[in-house]
Write the structure tokens for this entry.
Amino acid sequence: MFRLREGIGEGVGNWFEENIRRVVRDGRDTLFWYDRSIGDLPLRLKFPRLFDLAVEKECSVGEMEGRGWGIDGGA
Amino acid sequence: MGRRLFAWEEESVRECSFLLHNIVLQDFVHDTWWWLLDPIHGYTVRGAYRFLTTMGNMVDRSLVDDVWHKHVPLKVSLLVWRLLRNRIPTKDNLALRGVLSSTDTLCALGCDCNETVNHLFLQCTLSTDHWALVWNWLGISFVHDGELRQHFLRFTKMAGMSTYSHLFFTII
């Protein structure tokens, strides 16, 4: 599971990773930074600088939402 | 957070907040996967197989069909597939991967050639002798090709796939 999230794929490019997305409902089982849920890229790649600054890199979307998206403090 | 964000970091934060602000979570409904290639049925092995085999640019179609022919025993297909892609642990390949020292690549049968797939399966005396027996058994004469892919193409065009499978048995 974590290999998938780290973005390791084989064969035709990352054919598997490229074609799978997370559908966020309650956000408890989707990783905020790692999973491809919003847009085409995981947020850690879309906002690499914010990811570097983030204190807790493995929190779920639900946790982030609970902190008001943590834009000020959670990062 | 120990310091204020730099201006360009603020820019990222704004962009990120903008993305997030439309998201409304639904309590008590689990997150799920979404398979883009087939949003309705979701991921299936069949669908992925179809996707990968119609990508086209991976391998030469004619080779694929001949190697993975249903009349050819699996172990033979596997061997030929690896042969054609040079994935057999011959000495030159082992040396390339650091398993053997780079000076230890001479053919195990004692000839003074490097042990490559082409050598081992086509050029070495042992294999040419085998091939001669095969030709004899098939009752045909065949000019030997020194290169496996060419050899395979010419041989499969000439013979039916079933004879091809027997042929490799003699070598194994």
